[in-house]
């Protein structure tokens, strides 16, 4: 299999630029990065496909091409189109609401950035004491609340299942249940 070094370099550059663009705060750059990643994925599948051959029909002779990378490429194109349509709608709505497509920091982001290592240690130690005492997920219950009952434990429950005697072909009819025997 002969792989072009040019395709590999172009694919690597597309992946690097796509990842770099997706790390930006601007939604337009995120869209451009996602499109670059989609094209890099299509190039990767083209490289993996190998040497082109004949269509894989019954009765063809010679080397046949593998249809799986072609199907994966079509799937990657559809997924890239759907996600980029969603991102375009998101960018349009963001522009309508705020006249900008930049994602801003909210209060939770700022609080997370200002948290120190001491705060992290305090948050980690809060749940340790309760975990040692807990034996079950049920509050004030020492055992599981599910109890398996047997029919023999309750005389008030009438068993209307057929008799346990196996049916044999010499019998004229299948065995009757307890209700049918009581009616006769």
UniProtKB/TrEMBL annotation:
Residues 113-184 are annotated as: Disordered. Residues 151-163 have a biased composition (Basic and acidic residues). Residues 117-135 have a biased composition (Acidic residues). Its main location: membrane. InterPro entries: CPA3_antiporter_subunitC, NUOK/Mnh_C1-like. It is a multi-pass membrane protein. It is found in: Cell membrane. Pfam families: Oxidored_q2. Keywords: Cell membrane, Membrane, Transmembrane, Transmembrane helix. The chain crosses the membrane at residues 6-23, 30-51, 71-92. Belongs to the CPA3 antiporters (TC 2.A.63) subunit C family. PANTHER family: ANTIPORTER SUBUNIT MNHC2-RELATED (PTHR34583). NCBIfam families: PRK07946.1. This is Multicomponent Na+:H+ antiporter subunit C. It comes from Microbacterium murale.
């Amino acid at each position: 299999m002969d792989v072009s070094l040019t395709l590999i370099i172009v694919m690597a550059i597309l992946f690097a630029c796509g990842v770099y663009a997706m790390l930006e705060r601007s939604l337009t750059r995120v869209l451009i990065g996602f499109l670059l990643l989609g094209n890099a994925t299509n190039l990767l599948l083209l490289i993996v496909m190998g040497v082109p051959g004949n269509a894989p029909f019954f009765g063809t002779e010679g080397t046949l091409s593998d249809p799986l990378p072609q199907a994966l490429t079509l799937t990657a194109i559809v997924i890239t189109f759907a996600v980029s349509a969603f991102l375009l709608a998101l960018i349009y709505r963001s522009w309508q609401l705020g006249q900008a497509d930049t994602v801003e920091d909210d209060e939770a982001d700022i609080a997370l950035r200002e948290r120190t290592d001491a705060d992290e240690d305090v948050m980690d130690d809060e749940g340790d004491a309760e975990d040692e005492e807990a034996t079950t997920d049920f509050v004030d219950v020492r055992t599981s609340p599910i109890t398996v009952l047997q029919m023999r434990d309750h005389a008030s429950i009438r068993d209307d299942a057929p008799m346990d005697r196996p049916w044999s072909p010499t019998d004229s009819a299948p065995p009757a249940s307890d209700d049918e025997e009581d009616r006769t």
